[in-house]
Amino acid sequence: MSEQPETLLEFPCNFPLKIMGKADDSLAxxxxxxxxxxxxxxxxxxMEMRASSGGNYVSLTCTVVATSxxxxxxxxxxxxxxxxxKVVL
Length: 89
What we know:
Layout: E1 13-22, H1 27-38, E2 48-51, E3 57-66, H2 69-80, E4 85-88
Helix pairs in contact: 1-2
């Protein structure tokens, strides 16, 4: 009987994170700080930003090179606990 893998991902892999939060000047910097802490090779210039139609929210897409499930778990935990972040997909 074989063990089920903990994740279907094969590491390392490119993994897009979509972060949504309040439109705030410090949101992108805060997200960049968290992402580069867990994925030091992430290039902030590749971060995509899109404002909501009402302009109250912003979505940021950061594609990181994921090296492990614990790395992704830590990224999600820290991003979702940030006060400016509403949702991480």
